[in-house]
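Look over this entry.
=====
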Amino acid sequence: MRATHLWKQPRGWAAVIVGGLLAALVTLAYIGPAADPQAHLRDLPMVLVDADEGTPTGSTTVRLGKELGTRIEDDARHDGRISWHTVTSLPEARRLLERGEADGALVIPQDFSRKALTLVAPGATPQRPTLTVLTNEGAGSVASSMAEKAARATAAEASTALGRRLAERAAATEPGPDRLLLLQDPVRTVTEPARTTTGATAGGAMTLYLTIALLLAGLLPAVLLTMTVDAALGYSPLEMGPRRSLLPVVRITRTSTFLAKAGIGAVTGFGAGSAVIAVAVWGLGVEPDRPLQLWLFAGLTCAAITLLTLALFAVFGMAGQVIALLIVTMFGIPLSGGTVPVQAQPDFARAVGELLPARHVTEGIRSLVFFDGLGTGLVHAWLVIGAYAAGAFLVGLLVARLYDHRGFDRATALELARHPEHQAPLPA
C-alpha cells in the first residue's frame, strides 16, 4: 500500500479535522483568559488598612483617612473589580497577605490626617501624606502586578479627591500658588513588598513552574507503564529506533492488567513527585515554607495524575492518552490560575478550571511554598487531589470489570490461536 492511499481513508481526514478542532480549543484555553484580563477582572482580593488616628481641629477630630476609606469601598462596590477587606492595623493586613487571602494592600497611615491638614494650615510646614502599596509576590507575578496597578490607581483617585476636599477647606485662607499646585496631587504613593521572600521564586511564577513539572511527572509514568506492560503482554509492539519486537499475546483480564498498572503507577507517580521536589529544593534553590508537606503533596499529586491517566487508558484505550493531555496540561495549565489569576479569567474559564486538577495543584503549591501552609485553599487542594486519585482508581477498576463481564477481550481469537499456550485466562 502506498502512503498516498491513506488520504483516501475517511479516518485519516477525520483525524485531521479532530486535530484542527483540538488545536483551536487549546488556543482558546491558552489565549482566551490572557487576552484581556482587566476586562474580566472581578473581585480581586485586596486589603485596605485604615490606621489613620485623625487630628483634632477645635472641638472636633478630622478623620480624612476614614473618609477616604469609605469612598474607596463605595467605588469598589459599584465597579466590582476589586474586593476590599478593611482592617485597622498593619499587622492584621500582613497576616492576611501572608495567608494568601489577598493579592495586595493599600495602607492609610496613622498620621494621614495630620500631614494632610498641614497643606492648608496657614504658617504650617506642608507635609504630603503618604499611601503605601504592599505587594504580594506569592500571589503570582500577574496577580501581584494587577493588584499593585489597582492600588496605585486607587491611590491616584484618592489623591485627586483629597486635593479637591482640601482646596475647599483652604478657600477662605487664600493659599498661595505653591500650595494650590501642591493640592493638585497632595498624596505621595510608595510601593514595598509585604514580606521578603528567599530562595528561587521566579518573581512569583515558581508556583506555575512546579505545577507544570508535577503534572508532566504524573503523566509520564502512566504512558511508560502502558507502553511497556502492553508490550510485555503482547498487546502492542515495542519499537526502539529501527528495531520492532512483538511478543506472544498473554490472555489476561482487563481488570488484572489495570490493577497491575495502578499499583506500579501509584508508587512510580509518588516517586516522580518526590524527584521533582528534590531537584527543585536541593538543586535549584527553591525554599518552600513547608518542605515536608510539599513533598507529600507533590507525591500525591503525581500519583493521582498517573492513576487518572491509567484510568483514561482503561476506559478509552489509546485515545485516553490524548484525553489525559487535554485534561491535565493543555486545558489544565492555562486555566489553573498560575498565570492569569482566577478573578481575571472569563466565566467559562473559571467554571472549567475549577473541575480540572491543575487549579487545585496550583493552590496547594502556592500555599506550601509562599504562605506557610495557611489558608483554606490548601485543605481544599488536598481533598480534591485525593478525590481524583480515589475516583480515577475506582472508575478504571469498574470499567475494566465491566468490559471483562461483557466479554471484550483485548486479544482477538486469531491472535490467541497463534499462541495456544497462552490462552488460559489469569484470575482477575
